[in-house]
Design a protein that fits this description.
- This protein is of the alpha/beta class.
- It folds into two domains: 195 residues, Rossmann fold (3-Layer(aba) Sandwich), CATH 3.40.50.720; 83 residues, no CATH class.
- It contains eleven helices and 16 strands.
- Strands 7-6-12-13-14-11-15 form a seven-stranded mixed β-sheet.
- Helix 1 runs parallel beside helix 7, helix 1 runs parallel beside helix 11 and helix 5 runs antiparallel to helix 6.
- It is globular and about 70 Å long.
- The model has no long low-confidence stretch (mean pLDDT 95).
- The structure holds flavin-adenine dinucleotide (FAD).
- Flavin-adenine dinucleotide binds next to helix 1, strand 2 and helix 11.
Length: 376
């Protein structure tokens, strides 16, 4: 057998697993059906600007282990995500913090803001996302900053979405626009592509190669173990039915202006604007007046879409029905002895990048524990 591992998917799960296996002396073949590596972290250069082709990717983590791992293969800048919400032309800081409360109600003290929110809260047991949001943040924030955005994102009324999609909506009673609560945050200075290249160094890589075009039936002639990061329902030929996913359409434009919106991310929270957000990519690389060094800018509008077999499955829809269906596929996967399932699509989990890497590290350790060929 030529390879220790056949890894399906060059996204962060596949690439991290390949790195760990290669470091341990294993031979990996890593394939991807897309024409490039990196999965959803892939970037393209447009007019000297590193454009996040599949939506903005900001790396953030609380995990020391993950941060130590990624810093071996990339140097990160200190990008801090501070998005702006645009509701019918009124601008608000996100996440919800004292700046937001001042903009919305002219509240200037935490006590004033707390009293307003408390007076607007829903007090019953939330049966859907709308009631959950009303219980957590009250009517004004829900109606202006959550409802329209969430309904566009999921293509359903908030009354028909499960409450646990938003387990918590952090309210910060401080003037702090830093979106993430994590000690580590940034963007690779040389870009995600270079980071992924370093993870894949030493592996054999084939892009434009779909696992289901041939290899699926006789992969055991190629490798000892399969690492599969595609859709788990597709792997089992939709035996129990199809899992639901949500897709996106990206509309990217190059503009002859150095600074279009003054911020990396603007969320459009009303129901009428058909896109959810506009990303201005140069902000991920530079800040302050460095923005003006390039006279052009590149923006992307993000339109949520229903998933169809011709589109990309970006988000699992983790409601009760889909989670139940997934548990059937997971039970099948649990019986496999030479197949490892990992990543957003194979684990049907809304993983961030750090969680994806942590999952690959965990699965590699489990594999090492079971397989003494590569030692522990
Ligand atoms: P993927 O990146 O999807 O990689 C899977 C790969 O497998 C794909 O390249 C696919 O082409 C390939 N594949 C699938 N089926 C086959 C097949 N049959 N044959 C061959 N190849 C196959 N996370 C953050 O931490 N911060 C962010 O700011 C952030 N922003 C995001 C924005 C958007 C719009 C999206 C969609 C995700 C975002 N994420 C973010 C999440 C992040 O993208 C994921 O955590 C991570 O990319 C998951 O990696 P993965 O390897 O599991 O999946």
């Amino acid at each position: 057998m030529e390879y220790d591992f056949l890894i399906v998917g060059t996204g962060l799960f596949g690439a991290t697993f390949a790195r760990l296996a290669t470091n341990a002396g294993c031979k990996c073949l890593v394939i991807d059906r897309r024409p490039h590596t990196g999965g959803n972290t892939h970037c393209i250069d447009i007019s000297g600007i590193n454009v996040h082709q599949y939506g903005p990717h900001i790396f953030h983590t609380k995990s020391e282990d993950v941060w130590r791992f990624v810093n071996k293969y990339a140097t990160f800048n200190r990008f801090t995500l501070s998005p702006i919400a645009n509701y019918h032309g009124q601008l608000y800081n996100l996440p919800f913090n004292m700046n937001t409360f001042r903009q919305m109600w002219d509240a200037t003290t935490p006590q004033q803001a707390m009293a307003i929110i408390d007076s607007q809260r829903y007090h019953g047991t939330p049966r859907n996302l709308e009631e959950q949001a009303l219980a957590l943040v009250g009517k004004d924030i829900y109606e202006q900053l959550i409802k329209g955005y969430t309904e566009k994102q999921w293509g359903r009324s908030c009354r028909n979405l499960p409450p646990d999609i938003i387990k918590r909506l952090p309210l910060r009673y401080t003037f702090d626009n830093n979106y993430f609560d994590d000690p580590y945050q940034g963007i690779p200075i040389d870009g995600y592509n270079s980071f992924i290249d370093k993870l894949l160094q030493g592996s054999e890589v084939m892009t434009g190669c779909d696992f289901f075009d041939g290899l699926a039936n006789d992969w055991r002639h190629t490798a000892h173990t399969l690492v599969y990061t595609g859709m788990i329902d597709q792997f089992y030929q939709y035996r129990y039915g199809r899992l639901q996913y949500r897709s996106l359409r990206f509309e990217t434009e190059t503009l002859q202006t150095p600074n279009y919106q003054g911020v990396a991310q603007m969320n459009f929270t009303d129901a009428n604007t058909p896109y959810t957000r506009i990303i201005e990519h140069k902000y991920f690389q530079c800040s302050g007046n460095d923005i003006y060094h390039n006279p052009m800018t590149v923006i992307t509008r993000e339109y949520p879409q229903p998933y169809t077999p011709d589109s990309e499955p970006y988000y699992p829809v983790n409601d009760d029905t889909n989670n139940r269906l997934y548990s059937l596929y997971k039970a099948l996967a649990g019986k496999e002895t030479d197949i490892i399932f990992g990543g957003r699509l194979a684990e049907y989990r809304y993983y961030n990048m750090d969680q994806t890497i942590a999952s690959a590290m965990r699965k590699w350790s489990q594999y090492q524990g079971q397989d003494n060929r590569h030692g522990t």
